[in-house]
Amino acid sequence: MSKLWAGRTSGVTDKVADDFNSSIHFDHRMYQEDIKGSMAHAMMLGAQGIILKEEADTLIQGLEEILADLNSGALSFDFSCEDIHMFVEKVLTERLGDVGKKLHTARSRNDQVALDLRMYLKNQVNQIVTKIKALTEAIVNKAEEYKTAIMPGYTHLQRAQPVTFGHQLLAYCMMLLRDIDRFTDCYKRMNVSPIGSCALAGTTYPTNRELEANALGFDGVTQNSMDGVSDRDFVVETVSCCSLTMAHLSRFAEELILWTSWEFSFVELSDAYTTGSSIMPQKKNSDMAELIRGKTGRVYGDLMAILTVLKGLPLAYNKDMQEDKECVFDAVDTLNACLDVCIPMVATMRAKTENMAAAAKKGFINATDLADYLTKKGIPFRTAYKITGSIVGDCIKQGKILEDLTLAEYKAYDPTFEEDLFTAIDMVTCVNKRESVGGPAASQVEKQIAYVRSKL
Q1: What angle do CA 90, 96, 102 make, to 5 degrees?
Q2: Which of 207, 232, 357, 411 is the most exposed place for a label (fewest CB within 10 A)?
Q3: CA 348, CA 174: separation in Å to the nearest integer?
Q4: Are the beta carbons of 270 and 306 closer than 8 angstroms?
Q5: Contact assessment for residue 115 and residue 156, using Cβ atoms and an 8 Å cutoff
Q6: Chain centroid to CA 253: how far?
Q7: pTM for this structure?
Q8: Alpha-carbon separation of residue 237 from 57, 117, 201 (angstroms)
Q9: Are 215 and 40 in contact (CB under 8 A)?
Q10: Residue 229 near residue 317 (C-beta atoms within 8 A)
Q11: Active site annotation includes 28
């Protein structure tokens, strides 16, 4: 089949070259954006007198019918076409004749594809932000439910200091709120229209770029025609935002995997989001969390791919830029899929608070509070640290915890100890004394919950 760009060449390419060059098998997903963009373009051409108003109306009606037929399934994609733009123009010309051939006046596929991709990713970013908000809400609901459930906080995967499960969950809310901000900021730079840049040097026709941009919901237009067709910063930003959100989901997934293991047994996930073993009947595997953790790598790969495509690429449009779509499509698809499974998985999980509390008692995580007790009695911190370290070491040898020692045994280490030390090292006290901003005390956790909800 001869191509619409036939003229300088015969328009006939080898089948292998055709398949290699074609993008319709992945860019057909932008058909709605392509058709809506073409409708706005036809409207602008008619409004500016570049084509007759009646011709513009005919084009718009024809495009509306193609969109309706694709949506209903009455029209199928022709994958022998080079790309979605050629497909739509081919069908339009078949239906309208010579009027259909006027649609491409004062534009190029270079600015057309840049327009389609911006429109498509704007929709995707909005969808992703909505899902991140839903996940954040699911997590903050659990944080409120377990705001007083004491558990060990960890550094180096070693029990460190007492916190609450609610406090730990809220850390992920803060990450996700930053992700929302990043996507929202990315959207702002994406929301300018490149259409009218044409191939690279604009056009001699009296176009109205602002009219067309406004009709499509853009805030403005690109200010340099070469940049308009060659800019893919918005693709990099989108994939970068996806990558960082996936990093946060992966960290959360890793903790869920640890918490659901027999070794921790802090959390139980719903059967709906776990699998069993084909040979070991006792197994309940956190496969959804593991897949989220694993899929993070492919999104990182998408980011490296688009950065490499753009590295050293001369102005303006080059065919290399066709490689932007598969990586950004994969990144948004992967993130969407991970959010879709993560939201209900979190909403249905259950904390085993008794196991968390038991673990908190066994790791000497109130040792810092014991040292602080001495410091507040006037003993220098380093001296208090050494005394407490000696007490912990002896407890380990004797198989005891700090709460097991008598006041007399404590006084043998230092006469400063009094009966009030047992209140000071009680886990509830240890948590609720940490009232510094952002801390795990119930009063602070409630403020963090209120903050997250206000942002949502």
Answers
A1: 70
A2: 411
A3: 21
A4: no
A5: no
A6: 14
A7: 0.92
A8: 37, 13, 26
A9: yes
A10: yes
A11: no
- Catalytic-residue membership of 277: yes
- Give the relative orientation of helices 233-259 and 165-190 as an angle to the nearest 10 degrees: 170
Question: What's the confidence (pLDDT) of residue 279?
Answer: 84
Q: Which residues contact 85 (CB under 8 A, 6 or more apart)?
A: 34, 109, 112, 113, 116
> CB–CB of 326/301 below 8 Å?
no
Residue with the two structure tokens 């070491």? 393
pLDDT tens figures, 308-345: 999 999 999 999 999 999 999 999 999 999 999 999 99
Catalytic residue among 2, 277, 390, 443: 277
DSSP 393-435: HHHHHHT--GGGS-HHHHHHH-TT--TTHHHHT-HHHHHHT--
Is the link from the previous residue into 316 a cis peptide, with omega within 30 of 0?
A: yes
List, in order, residues 6 or more apart from 313 with CB less than 8 Å away: 230, 320, 321
The catalytically annotated residue of 10, 72, 76, 156 is 156
> How far lies 189's CA from each of 186, 305, 345, in Å?
6, 21, 33
Residue 218: the pLDDT is 98
Q: What is the full DSSP assignment across 189-200?
A: HH-EE-TT-TTT
